[in-house]
Each structure stands twice: as structure tokens, then as C-alpha cells.
Amino acid sequence: MLTGSHLSHFEMLGQRFCCLRSAGLQAKENVLVSIRCHGQTIAAIAFLTTVEPTFRVRHDETPPGSYRWAHIGSDQFYIALQEPHLGANAQSDHRPYKDYGVTHLAWVVEDFDLVTERLEQKGYQKGIPVEPHPHRKRVYYYDAAGFEWELVEYLTEAPEERNDYA
Length: 166
Fold this sequence. Notes:
The chain is of the alpha+beta class. It is about 15% helix and about 30% strand. It has helices at about 40-50, 110-120, 160; strands at about 10, 15-20, 30-35, 55-60, 70-75, 80, 105-110, 125, 135-140, 150-155. The strands form 2 sheets. Strands 2-1-7-10-9-8 form a 6-stranded mixed sheet, with helices on one face. A hairpin with a 5-residue loop joins strand 9 and strand 10. The longest helix is centred in the first third of the chain and has 14 residues, at about 40-50. The two termini are about 30 Å apart.
């Protein structure tokens, strides 16, 4: 489960961001993910609520003559899912790990084994293999629409050990 102590950290594209009160960035609010279709919105919501059962759909709307957008998360943070604007050709030839663009989003979790067990029970498929590391557990999973998510549990508070890439 994501906790208050983990909410000060955000990981994306393999980089860990920490929101410090002394810096200009005060807190993270949301991440916007543009998705292709209704089915991807449903897949992302199902995956995220499996990873973090306390997440809820904060808003889900398709205004008349417009496109669907949904917010899923907590009171402190959410993922904004936006379907294509009307009339948009929502095709993508993005190849993860080969082309520019976001390949995956990463989440720090408190109980890695519990979260991965829930994902396995629901049949989610693992992504790229990960080498074992003495200071963190990591895994990649695909949601039902094919978007990749990384999960990491740090086994130490020491930044030099958390960020050891040797």
C-alpha cells in the first residue's frame, strides 16, 4: 500500500523524484496519461486498483460532444486518464524501449510480495525481467491494455543504496 511517507516520492522513466518543501516544487498532484480507447481506461483503472486498493475513481466523465477523462487515485495524488479528442486519429506506433516517449510509470510500494501476489491472482503478465538487487525489489507488469507499470519496494532508507545501479 502507498503510504504518506512514500507519497513524497515519485518515479517515472526510471528516475526518482522527491518533492522537497524547501524546493520550488511543493508536491506532486497528478500524471496525465493519454490512452487510445475506452477499453484502455477500464484496463488502467482495474490494474491501479489492484496495485493500490485504496485508490478510487475520483472523477469519470465524457462531456457531451467531447472526450472521456477519468481521475483515479487518492486525496493526495491521482492519475488522469484521457481518451483521444473527438475526431483524433488515435494511432501510435510507439515501441517501448525503442522509440521516444513514456515507456512505463513506476510506483513505490510498501509490501511488494502482497502487491505482486494480487497481480498474479488476477492474471496480469510480467514485463521485462529484472536482475535481483540487495536494496530493492522491482518488477514490471502489463495491464490488460498493454501499458507497462513498474513496482519497486526499497529495502533501505539510504539513498546511496536505493540508487545503486551497479
